[in-house]
Amino acid sequence: MAKTKYIFVTGGVASSLGKGIISSSIGKLLQARGYHITIQKFDPYINIDPGTLNPYEHGECYVTIDGQETDLDLGHYERFTGIQTTKANNITTGRIYQSVIEKERRGDYLGKTIQVVPHITDEIKRNMLILGKKGNYDFIITEIGGTVGDIEGLPFLEAIRQLKWELGKDAVCVHLTYVPYLAAAGELKTKPTQHSVKELQSLGIQPDVLVLRAEHELSQNLRNKVAAFCNVDCDCVVQSLDLPSIYEVPIKMHEQELDTVILRKLNVEVAPAPDLAPWKNFLSKRYNATKELHIALVGKYDLQDAYKSILEALSQAGTYNDRKVKTHFVNSEKLTDDNVEELLKDMSGVVICPGFGQRGIEGKIIAARYCRENNKPTFGICLGMQMMVIEFARNVLGYEDANSREMDEKTPHNVIDIMEEQKNITHMGGTMRLGGYECIVDKDSRTYEAYNSTKIIERHRHRYEFNNDFKQEFIDNGMACVGINPESDLVEIVEVPSNTWYIGTQFHPEYSSTVLNPHPLFLSFIQASIGVEED
Ligand code: GLN
What we know:
Structural class: alpha/beta
Largest sheet: 9 strands, mixed
Low-confidence stretches: none
Shape: globular
Number of strands: 23
Radius of gyration: 25 Å
Strand order of the largest sheet: 13-12-14-15-23-22-21-18-19
Distance between the termini: 55 Å
Bound molecules: glutamine
Number of helices: 19
């Protein structure tokens, strides 16, 4: 297509309606028509990135291949489209202000008073257009975090108002709202939607398409009413009901022609039909996979979103192995020598989760020991891998005080240690080992069987590392170091080869598992867990 076109996705009435899923679904449908697309998210909060946020605040922190800590919606974008995102795909108010203030100090605006309008809004607009200017994309989908009416969202909406005006037919706004059902009246209520659209209109934005989240089917009458009150075409009011799988959303959106009306609004007269066959194939596999596989997640965050990518990677790998993965959260703070057997014995596989800080680590170490000694398929991810290493050092190498420098500064058996370049870090934000690093996989390993490749690139997010001073001792005693970073010689993957499947990765494979390309290590872990179930 000659010109890049822009689709803005805003939300109203309530948060958590699934703007990320709708944005991903629009992206998927356009991609399935053969277009080049990318999805970006603008978050109105003031943090530079979500890297320093507690998962309880904001769910999982997702990491892009180029090492940006981002909002978890970027994980949805990648899982749906298989297209990698980058630093430019997630911008926060903090980053906008940081860049404006840097320019001000540099003297770029000499003589001028710096104001929200036009300086902040211009910077937002510039960032919204950066990926489009590369000329690689037919469509850029831009999701705006938060809900219309939030004070901090105003500059972003003003930027959209201006861009819609400047780009004319090359920009549309899709607004997602909620239609509650009042049980006492037995009725669906559109008033909150009308108010939310009025709010947008009062900011000078006329939405082109409305996606209404609802728990009950919306009649044509009701849709016509919304269309009439909100100045949108009748076929531009689309419903989004709760579905058994988020991966069904693109199909349901296509059935209601969401992609078709967006293309019409963007003046794309002829568009190829979407090829949704691979996607539908995945869905039918998913629905046919009814046999359950029980996997424990040993972690400290009792909250779904904290381990979002791991949950998705497990469930995708389950689908491809004809299983419905049922995950059981095991709170590592409550895990003890006395209850570990009871909590884990019926599980077919165990994931020891990533994390930071002291809280809950002893439980992870107990889980690692139980799984190693009982030959349970076990997948340790990042901190989970570090806990596998510490457990092995304590119970096999005999170093009772083995620990990570993160938890115990003084231990002489710091089998997980801090790197030289990390020692003098003064700022917490964005300073970990982040993003994609190459790793060479030993051919004689279970990991190699999974990847079928000796050269892999995986994403990292951690400050501490396997301490190579102890490496030979680990190897001599039965823990193999099967993945090594060729530049730094750091250990990225450990295995216990005498077990069926006991693997720890310093990196986060879950970030790169997608619907149509499930991650080989998760596939292999699920296969090993099925093996247990069938024994
Ligand atoms: N806290 C550990 C580190 O910083 C592990 C981090 C993680 O699990 N992502 O090295």
